[in-house]
Write a structure and sequence with these properties.
Elements (H helix, E strand, L loop, with lengths): L20 H14 L3 H19 L9 E2 L12 E8 L3 E9 L7 E8 L2 H4 L3 H19 L8 E6 L4 E2 L7 E2 L17 H11 L3 E7 L1 H12 L3 E7 L3 E8 L16 E5 L16 H9 L9 H4 L1 H17 L22 H9 L6 H11 L5 H33 L4 E6 L1 H5 L3 H13 L17 E5 L3 H18 L9 H5 L3 H4 L9
Parallel strand pairs: 2-5, 5-8, 9-12, 12-13
Antiparallel strand pairs: 1-11, 2-3, 3-4, 6-7, 9-10, 10-11
Family: Belongs to the hexokinase family.
Catalytic activity: D-fructose + ATP = D-fructose 6-phosphate + ADP + H(+); a D-hexose + ATP = a D-hexose 6-phosphate + ADP + H(+)
InterPro entries: ATPase_NBD, Hexokinase, Hexokinase_BS, Hexokinase_C, Hexokinase_N
Length: about 500
Amino acid sequence: MVGLGPKRKPSRKGSMADMPGSMVEEIKRLEQLFTVDTQKLKAITDHFISELDKGLSKEGGSIPMNPTWCMGFPTGYETGTFLALDMGGTNLRVCEINLPEEKGEFDIIQSKYRMPEELKTGNADELWGYVADCLQQFIEYHHEGEKLDKLPLGFTFSYPATQEYIDHGVLQRWTKGFDIDGVEGKDVVPPFEAALEERGVPIKLTALINDTTGTLIASAYTDSEMKIGCIFGTGCNAAYMETCGNVGKLAHMNLDPDAEIAINCEWGAFDNEHKILPRTPYDVIIDKDSPRPGQQAFEKMIAGLYLGELFRLVLVDLHEQGHVKMFEGQDISALKKPYSLDASFLSQVEEDAFENLAQTHDLFEKELNITPKRPELELIRRLAELIGTRSARLSACGVAAICKKKGYKTAHVGADGSVFNKYPHFKVRGAQALKEILDWESGRDGKPLKEGTYPIEIMPAEDGSGVGAALIAALTLKRVQEGNTVGIKDWEGMLKGTAAAKGDNKQVGGK
């Protein structure tokens, strides 16, 4: 590379030296647009709490707050063998999880199968037939020659679905590139079970779950301080345990008011009414041009799917505003393609440790055929920081809202997803926002606040769509065996032939 000066590897601080005044002013404008101060974070959190309550009420609200019929946390002493199925957009994952006698332990074997693109727009019979074929292959490979009773299955079905029972779910709408006619608005379980039956696959679907609920339960299995499960990835969501007495929409069922039920918040829909979130003109464009304008307002400001697009829209806008002279005289046609940049692009910009931002320079040349000048690189870097920081800080509002609503003074929060796991500084920025919202002055040990002592900590989650799904199947089976069948439709079918799950002398579901 020529003309960008010497490279230095240590951490860098952005330089405004030799930057045109118009660009300095533009950075200040962007900082005002994308910065969310403490006061605003607190206001958002308070509104979030009222919206969570509204979602639980009989009347409902923007945030769906779906009861999952997963009742209570695991004890850590669940035992037996369970299958888990995770149907994602790219792969199908099948796991067999053995829960031994040791508290919080598990053994897992798993296989991945590619989800053929043509199946996503084919017909329902082909889809469920393929899924059943993969399960059959898995069992034949790992249990060759064995005579099996029906193995209980936890199915992670991470598409918006309404559930009146834990073992059934009505698909609201397809996402992740699926568009199969005749499935939306219908229960997905009967055709899936019919495909298993047709092939003689020894499996009984015991729980249909969302990956966020699985994240909560899997994390709580190994950590008794775990109170919330979150996904910060392509989309965003959270699940937590609510007492039935606080769920107005279930009042007609006369459940034990002190019993606990996991709530799948689907909180990407927070503030669809645009009352509190500090939207920029770029957020407005993203919403207007999306397939479903007016929906998922919170998700569109914090989730991985949209971070790169926000970044792209700002840069195109700056290029088209003649006074800033951004990428002046260059062909930006590659940058003009919607959703051509994803969150990993921003990650690479934020991870560039060279003083002269040489890696960012190379990234723009390679991916976009744009050669940025030094002042432009500084603006690019600051913009990435602003968008990434806003995402982390707004994400913390949802976590803080649940903690304040439930009165949690200390808690662990299990988080999964590509943004949480891979986006630089996301964890630290989120923790700082929690500290500001909840007014922490000292750590959980009563000593001065330092990382590792925060009263509420967001940490990497256990495998929700594998271990979590299996655990929820175990908890459901345990409830059936204890005679508690609330929220379970085919409990009689579950009682038949679960010997395979019991092991030789094990009580399925716990001691």
